[in-house]
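The passage that follows is intended for readers who have already worked through the single-chain material. We present the inputs for a multi-component assembly, then the predicted structure in tokenized form, and finally a short commentary. You are encouraged to pause after the input and sketch how you expect the pieces to fit together before reading on.
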Amino acid sequence: QVQLVESGGGVVQPGRSLRLSCAVSGLTFSSYSMDWVRQAPGKGLEWVAFISYDGSNKYYADSVKGRFTISRDNSRNTLYLQMNSLRTEDTAVYYCAKTWEFAFDYWGQGTLVTVSS
Amino acid sequence: DIQLTQPPSFLSASVGDRVTITCRASQGISNYLAWYQQKPGKAPKLLIYAASTLQSGVPSRFSGSGSGAEFTLTISSLQPEDFATYYCQQLYSYPVTFGPGTKVDIK
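Having made your guess, compare it with the prediction:
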């Protein structure tokens, strides 16, 4: 079955960096675009970043543009989110999701990032 | 950016009720709309895509309709496991956006 497993979350001070990973199994990872979505405590869903199946196209939310970088390693079936210059408002559960034209059909369980001094 | 609204943000209902949740887009998005269910501490679960297509494995009491800028999610007979928050999402253009959510609670 399809599995997406995020890792790399934790507590980090403002201004520091963190890299999230999303290990994907049960499908041909290199055939699918992927996204990151986050959810601040008690809040709704916020899209963060997109990467095409081959990594050639990337899009970012304005709130993270210039600070976050999405990437993928198709040989390792893994998606990444490099987060630099973290702010307190980046505190959230971060989900990776498999995407296609009409929906995000598979989601990971999420990893919590807490930015606090 | 395309904005989505979901009135109301909170809805009280009883088991067996027919429930309708609305999602309105700030511009036409054809049928590039999905609906998700989220329970506390869990990832969102895809219910409906392309506005009206039921995702595999989702009970048939869930249905979606609409196109353009107005959409609805209907639960024909609310079950205890359906108490959750429901989000709409547009994939017509990036940035992908989500509605603010409608929480369905027990009356």
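Commentary: Chain A touches chain B at residues 35, 44-47, 50, 59, 61-62, 95, 101-105, 107-110 (CB under 8 Å). Chain A has a mean pLDDT of 97. How closely did your sketch match?
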